[in-house]
Amino acid sequence: MRLYLSRPHMSGHEEARVAEAFASNFVAPLGPQLDAFEASVAAYLDQDLHCVGLSSGSAALHLALRIAGVGPGDEVWISSMTFAGGIFPVNYLGATPRFFDLDPDTWTIDTARLSEELAKAAAENRLPKAIVPTDLYGQSADLAPLEALAEQYEVRLIVDSAESLGASYKGGRKAGTGGDAAILSFNGNKIITTSGGGMLVTRHKDWADEARFLATQARDPAPHYEHSTYGYNYRLSNICAAIGLGQMEVLDARVARRREIFARYEQTLCRPGITFMPEPADLFSTRWLTALTIDAQETGISREDIRLMLLEHEIESRPLWKPMHMQPLYKGATYHGSGVDEALFANGLCLPSGSDMTDAEQDEVIDRINRLLNA
Length: 375
Prior knowledge:
Blueprint: H1 14-23, H2 32-45, E1 50-54, H3 57-67, E2 75-79, H4 88-92, E3 96-100, H5 111-123, E4 130-132, H6 143-153, E5 156-160, E6 168-169, E7 173-174, E8 181-185, E9 198-202, H7 205-215, H8 238-248, H9 251-269, E10 274-276, E11 290-294, H10 296-299, H11 303-312, E12 318-319, E13 335-336, H12 340-347, E14 348-351, H13 359-374
Parallel strand pairs: 2-3, 2-4, 3-13, 4-5, 5-8
Antiparallel strand pairs: 1-9, 6-7, 8-9, 10-11, 11-14, 12-14
Helix pairs in contact: 1-8, 2-8, 3-7, 5-6, 9-13
């Protein structure tokens, strides 16, 4: 049987929640399960935040950027190493991305480089409309300096926390609470899932209100269908939200299991030439995926050698995200960096990390990689 990178992991609570939705006949897009799911996420993150359940993380980013005022001719400064859905909304709005490298100590956006470029941009009157850092592979970006820079230069900060629900930042602050808004993803491969879905999380009530309005086809309050602007069909299904309610009950347990899986990989595979994603002492990562790099010169084995060997045995692994500035779509885009993300892509691999993976399944992955490395 194929071992997947990160498959959905149901807890048993979801069926009861979905049954409640069916029994009440709330099978339309909105309903009490969606309201409860939004409240549950807010209670987990910070009760003072406003949460809006949406059809995907990309939808959440699209709405956040639009509400931030991003439009044609604007720039959005963004982590280059990210999933495509974390950048495409910039294109939807006719804006231009400017890509930034990672800090090698955290694998999140290089805040020092960002600070330098903001100072230059301010002097030349070309500041971006928004900054979008990515919480990579379950680890929070460095929120304090990012928020300070956004305030100093009066630029909107929207944090892509699609991969980091359950992580925390210095002092225990939850990932997903940063900036003017943060976005979450509940795609099938995430820490918890609603089958497909996302969420916009914001400290601004007016942003949440506008997001709900735009996500329901921007229908004005009238007995007929009245529209003064265009909107989207972006709201999360009440049935999917019911699944999310069941998943929230086991979120911390799912994070704990993925951290166990990461620790076991690190203990059994670490050797000269194998380096795992760092976790600074004041950060707490979900270890959504176990990410490592392989130095082919030191090990004699490349990232692709390992990936293809695992694939032969029906074990799914995946290269790290290909940086967006290297993608054909963004050829010629402005990039600020020294190639930290390029090197991570060239040598990086994500190993199977699903919270339902058994010790025996992980033993097989570890054994096969060690045999190849020792050959």
